[in-house]
Each structure stands twice: as C-alpha cells, then as structure tokens.
Amino acid sequence: MIQFQDVTKTYSRSHTHALQKVSFMINQGEFVYVTGHSGAGKSTLLSLILRRIQPSEGIVYILGQDLSKLKENKLPLLRRKLGMVFQDHRLLSHLCAIDNVIFVLRATGEKGDLEGRALRALRQVGLAHKRKAFPVELSLGEQQRVAIARALVTNPPVLLCDEPTGNLDPDTSWEVLELLNDVNLKGTTVLVATHSRELVDQLRKRTLVLRNGRVVRDDEKGGYSL
C-alpha cells in the first residue's frame, strides 16, 4: 500500500535534510504509528505520500504506483484514495456536519445519493444525530469525528492522520483512537503521525520512530520510545 525506498528529502533553501535514506513498507490493512520529536520528519513523510512534494532521492510507491511517474492530471484520482485527517479538523464553519461531508463528495465529482452516503459516514463515526449541527455547536471531539467521516466518505483504502488528537483531552483522544481502530478493523490501512505517548502506549500497533529524518525503530509490538 505504501512503500518508501531510500527516500531522502532535502529542502534546498534551508539545506535541511528532512528525511534521509528512509525505507519501509506498509501492507494492506495495517495500523501504523509514525512518531518522533518535532522536526523529526513526520509531516514531510505525509506530504510525500500525498505528493505535495517530491523526494530529492529515492522512490515513493502508493497503491503500487511510483509517484515520480504519476502525471499531474492523475493526482486527483490518487488523492481520492487517500483519506486525510488533520489536527485542526478544517471543517467549513458555514456548513453543517452533513454538508461538510457532502462537500467532499461534490469536490471529487461523485454522483448519486450524496446525502445518503454522507449520512452513512456520519453514522459510522456515531454522529448521525448531529448531522444538522454546525461546527461551532459541536465539541472538539465531535468536530474531529466529522473530519474522520469526511475522510472516509469516499471509501479510501488508506487513511492518513496528522496529529488527529493534538487538540483533544485524554478521554476524547482515546475515543478518536478507538474509532480509528474500528476503521482499521474493517479493512482500511491507517497511518497515524503522532507524538502522543499515551495513545501509542494505550493501543499497541506497529510503530515507526523518526529521529533527525531517519527511521531509528520499526517495532511490530509498538510502544512509545524515542
């Protein structure tokens, strides 16, 4: 599903080596944490998967596709297969929960019963009863659940999460993590970039640890240790 082969990313203006000779493979159906201190390379790794940037060296494969050979007009098709959840949820404040989810379907050119699909996604995250609520009327945890529903509504085989619990209290963070685990158990490959020791230790999954742009640990048993 996701493979890095000797990937290096250097930002030329600052001469920063964000990633150095990084290699790993994530198979279909895995749940993987990517951890590391701030500046370790987590955000760069996610940006490479989404092909917002390209590596300076090495090859990134997503769903069997060498991203260096992917034409620009094919990028939207790839990104439809990659659900993305951010720390700050990025909901549109002028749209209610269900319309936030429908917005993604319309933006990707989907047809048919968009409202029905959006409602099923909200039901999946336990928020069907809040479908008409606006973001300001939802708790932070509920807002993040809507963001997860939005990421899942196109049925992507891969779900990427960038610090999805960074703004949440411990109890709400655990609820979101349980939800991500449920999504994974239904077959979706889940990659979570996080620096939260509590989450990584509570739900043990494969853990990749980055330090100064290098993978220094790839532990199937998980656990937070930098």
The level of helicity is 25-40%
The coarse silhouette is globular
Ends distance:
26 Å
Indicate the radius of gyration in whole angstroms.
Answer: 17 Å
Largest β-sheet summary: 6 strands, mixed
Number of strands: 10
Explain the overall architecture.
There is one protein chain. By secondary structure, the protein is of the alpha/beta class. The chain has a domain at 84-155. Helix content is 31%, strand content 27%. It contains 7 helices and 10 strands. It has helices at residues 42-49, 75-79, 97-107, 114-124, 140-152, 170-185, 197-202, and strands at residues 2-11, 16-26, 31-35, 57-62, 65-66, 82-85, 158-162, 189-193, 206-211, 214-219. The strands form 2 sheets. A 6-stranded mixed β-sheet has the order 6-7-8-3-9-10, sandwiched between helices. It has a 4-stranded antiparallel β-sheet with strand order 2-1-4-5, covered by helices on one side. Helix 4 crosses helix 5. The two termini are 26 Å apart.
Write the layout of secondary structure elements.
Blueprint lengths: L1 E10 L4 E11 L4 E5 L6 H8 L7 E6 L2 E2 L8 H5 L2 E4 L11 H11 L6 H11 L15 H13 L5 E5 L7 H16 L3 E5 L3 H6 L3 E6 L2 E6 L7
Parallel strand pairs: 3-8, 3-9, 6-7, 7-8
Antiparallel strand pairs: 1-2, 1-4, 4-5, 9-10
